[in-house]
Write a structure and sequence with these properties.
Two copies of one chain form a homodimer.
Chain A: H1 2-12, E1 16-20, H2 29-39, H3 43-61, E2 67-70, H4 73-76, H5 79-95, E3 99-106, H6 110-121, E4 123-126, E5 129-132, E6 139-142, H7 148-161, E7 164-170, H8 177-180, E8 183-184, E9 187-188, H9 189-202, E10 212-216, H10 221-230, E11 236-238, E12 262-266, H11 268-271, H12 287-306
Parallel strand pairs in A: 1-2, 1-12, 2-3, 3-6, 6-7, 7-10, 10-11, 11-12
Antiparallel strand pairs in A: 4-5, 8-9
Chain lengths: ~300, ~300
């Protein structure tokens, strides 16, 4: 699956991923109204609204983007109905040949991480039968706080299914440094985590990059530069571009000399583009056309500033 | 909710929590057979089997135990059907007046942690309506790797609903030391996390303990001793007793002089008790009676060795 991701990024010259984090406040009123009319102002209504919203964005951007990254929390908050909308979104994106990175940030002790891995990127056994993972993303994000025990079960499962993971190394949020930047023998914790990611990745290599990727926030480019060197064969998923403050000119250090090695995420900046002044002329009715234009602008911004064109 | 948990622990003289981590291999064959007959060897069949298994264990132990801790991964692996069984288990335990600690180990950037918090321990807004959290546990476990940003949204939501969290500090698994034990200015990372937990906890205090608890594995008693001092008002959830190797005689440091401050989890040791030689005479048909006896023995073991009786 890492090979497919790399191929798609090369073919589209688009090292971008659209974050499908559909907070209800981003969903245009006409969609909410229609969903609430049919299902009431219920969890089911909310779930249906975000699914319709996602579907239209996928339809209008699928020829431009290699991947989407649905954030499961935005679905989980609406319970079972919300998670059903997550599954529908994953399946629909895959039907459009888009790689799906499930942003689930799971991680636990070994036997428990195995269960998460099986349910998201593996195969599930029930009695004498076995099934594709019920969530069935192509990649998932994993939290490393529990160490190798908590990550290896994901790698093991991915080896069987040809899927992959992105391990949190240095996150994009303001307080990420509180623990991640703490110095151990003069070097920050995230560097140690980065070294482990490179090590875990050696066990599951694709053609030129590993199936084990890393998450490094766009908001910390100096750290991105160091981590790029520590993890040369690791694809870096870069959140924090756009709405969170990361600029395209800061993204160059995340890429390798082959022009690959990083994929930049934007969520709000794309899915809620119609709420920005720049794209306001599309109007809420044409929110997905605004998203399409925002994707085109994002690809242009990144490829120009990073020197990929 | 921390006050209710403390009251129940005192009343029952039972600082224990039963981990409802129902791997299918723990579910007796007669239950699996019945569920598969009705629903097939499907995800629904698996979900129904673990729900029936849980229900019988809850019925047979609810008068002895203050709390249960369902591990959501064991349900999530069976997809939507599995998560519906999780919700049924949470609701059923609460109907029996048992405190429910959802072992979900979520944690993300601020806006995303808010969504998890709302969906598990908060209230969800849809249009003009608002609903109880769809998962609605009394407590949840939280991963601290993202720092204050990722934890505070849970605390804020819990302040509104009177619920609480347990933050991972030092986990029970063998590789937990890989990052958690790394020395920062001579002190391990888990101590820094412990200090933060104490600080976060000051913002949401119950009568004698905080609504913000900590997870510290039974497998590391020396560290438990240090952490007890760093977090005097923090309830410590202690996994790793029994099947993972933690012994009752090592648990004393986790408790305060008031005989409170810690609650010890056992999962396999209780729910799969009937598979142990010690309880084999109950037979698989009476697995829940074996669980009841294992709970009685666990309470006796802990209260005797810790000096609570």
């Amino acid at each position: 699956m890492i090979n497919k991701l790399v191929d798609k990024i090369k073919k589209l010259n688009a090292p971008v991923v659209v974050g499908l984090d559909p907070m209800l406040k981003y969903v245009p009123e006409h969609i909410q109204k229609k969903a609430f009319k049919e299902f009431g102002e219920t969890l089911e209504g909310a779930a249906e609204a975000i699914w319709w919203f996602n579907k239209e964005i996928i339809d209008k951007t699928c020829d431009l983007i290699p991947a989407v990254k649905p954030q499961i929390a935005m679905y989980e908050q609406f319970g079972i109905a919300g998670l059903a909308a997550f599954v529908k979104t994953v399946d629909y994106a895959k039907s459009k040949d888009i790689v799906v990175i499930g942003d689930i940030k799971r991680g636990d002790i070994g036997s428990t991480s195995s269960a998460y891995a099986v349910g998201h990127v593996g195969r599930v056994s029930v009695g004498s039968k076995s099934y594709d993972a019920p969530f069935d993303e192509d990649f998932v994000t994993v939290n490393p706080y529990l160490g190798t025990d908590g990550v290896k079960p994901f790698v093991d499962v991915c080896k069987e299914t040809g899927k992959g993971i992105f391990v949190l190394v240095k996150t994009s949020n303001p307080s990420s440094g509180e623990f991640q930047d703490q110095k151990i023998d003069g070097r920050p914790l995230y560097e140690l985590v980065g070294e482990k990611v490179a090590e875990w990745g050696e066990a599951h290599m694709g053609d030129s990059y590993s199936y084990v990727g890393a998450v490094v926030g766009a908001t910390y480019p100096e750290m991105g530069k160091v981590l790029r060197k520590i993890m040369p064969k690791t694809y870096i998923l870069v959140p924090g571009y756009g709405a969170q403050g990361g600029k395209a000119k800061d993204l160059a250090p995340y890429f390798n000399e082959d022009g690959l090695g990083a994929i930049v995420n934007s969520s709000r900046g794309i899915i809620a583009a119609y709420t920005q002044e720049k794209y306001a002329s599309f109007g809420a009715e044409h929110f997905a056309d605004a998203s399409r234009q925002a994707v085109i602008d994002m690809i242009e911004d990144i490829t120009t500033n990073v020197g990929l064109k």
